[in-house]
Amino acid sequence: MCHKHQFPCLHCHPHDYIRMVQHMIESCLVFQMSKDECVEALAKHANIEPVITLTVWEELLKENKAFFQEYFQALSPRQSSVD
Predict the structure, then answer these.
(1) Does the pTM exceed 0.85?
(2) Among 49, 26, 28, which residue's Cα sits nearest to residue 37?
């Protein structure tokens, strides 16, 4: 049974929901966030379950290996300066 929601619902419209999470992850990437920072931000600000964010992140990683290799290399200096 579907209910009216302001945003796509995982149960009512799973494809739209996953697409929304993907767009949110892409926004996190623009802000050069790590995977953990992205998971935390989406959980806190968009009420997205961490397991959903992690699953979508892993699928994006599989589909865009070269992009993520460069992305993680670019993040490495930032992450080591934070530690």
Answers:
(1) no
(2) 28
